[in-house]
Amino acid sequence: MDELMELLKGRRTYRRFEQRKVDQSIVDDIMKAAVMASSAANKQPLSYIIVEGDNKVRQVFEHTRWAAALSPAEGQPKEGERPVLYIAVIQNMNINPNCDTDAGLAISNMTLAAWNHGVGSCILGACNRIKLGEIFGLTDDQKLHSLVAFGYPSVKSRIVGAQQGESLDYYLDENRDYVVPKRKLSDIVTYF
Ligand SMILES: Cc1cc2nc3c(=O)[nH]c(=O)nc-3n(C[C@H](O)[C@H](O)[C@H](O)COP(=O)(O)O)c2cc1C
After folding, report:
1. Mean pLDDT, to the nearest integer, of 178-185?
2. I want to staple 72 with a disulfide (CB 3.0 to 4.6 A). Which of 33, 76, 80, 110 is the partner?
3. Is the pLDDT assigned to residue 1 strictly greater than 90?
């Protein structure tokens, strides 16, 4: 159990990466973890597109936006620190058009499976779905739900407790590592 809590603590959002390939066996684990996620009525409306290789990841990067809480100079990964792998989560609308929870659970499993191998990730809701849909050749029945970026982090990230009323914006410390304020349980949990 302690191991799981440590995994959850370390599985933060990472936005700067080493330029080192993620082994196929790890990609396989990430995808096995996605398939193991719960799914409403077990319909499993999601499919996945794996993007690897310099030219393809560069093409996808052009249509992503990073770190809304930071200035582009601070938050946008620069050449030499960009992700080396993306996995696009595709909604198949003909199977189940309401699959946000399915997607969230699958993404959670994927990012945890990756972090279990030291591979960090960033969920990218802010991406140009029209352009990426064209690039991926999606059909009329398919929509890009989210894009998830992966790579070995070249930066650290840690959680700090947020005081009530304090900003929840993440920020960079003096080492350019991420600091992520999380609400305190005493502020958000009550017993009925
Ligand atoms: C649904 C969703 C969409 C997100 N979209 C983006 C995004 O487009 N760009 C980005 O840099 N981070 C994105 N993130 C990452 C969040 O900014 C990050 O989860 C938050 O700052 C908390 O950090 P943590 O993941 O380390 O707890 C997204 C996260 C979620 C859950």
Report:
1. 97
2. 76
3. no
* Digit-coded pLDDT (tens) for 110-132: 999 999 999 999 999 999 999 99
User: Residue of the nearest CA to atom 15 in ligand 1?
Assistant: 123
Query: How far is the centre of ligand 1, averaged over its atoms, from the C-alpha of 123 (Å)?
Result: 6
**Residue 52, Cβ density class (10 Å: 0-12 exposed, 13-18 middle, ≥19 buried):** middle
Give the relative orientation of helices 129-136 and 54-61 as an angle to the nearest 10 degrees. 150
Distance from C-alpha of 134 to C-alpha of 64, rounded to nearest angstrom = 14
Ligand 1 is surrounded, with C-beta below 6 A, by 12-13, 15, 65-67, 122-126, 157, 170, 180
User: Residue 44: which of 84, 99, 119 has the closest Cα?
Assistant: 99
pTM of the entire structure? 0.97
Q: How far is the CA of 122 from the centre of ligand 1 (A)?
A: 6
List domains and CATH numbers for the chain.
Answer: 2-155 (3.40.109.10), 156-192 (2.20.180.10)
User: Which atom of ligand 1 has the smallest separation from the CA of 170?
Assistant: 21
Establish how many alpha carbons lie within 13 A of residue 37's alpha carbon, considering only the half-sphere containing its beta carbon.
Answer: 28
Burial of residue 151 (CB within 10 Å: 0-12, 13-18, 19+) is buried
pLDDT at 144 over 80: yes
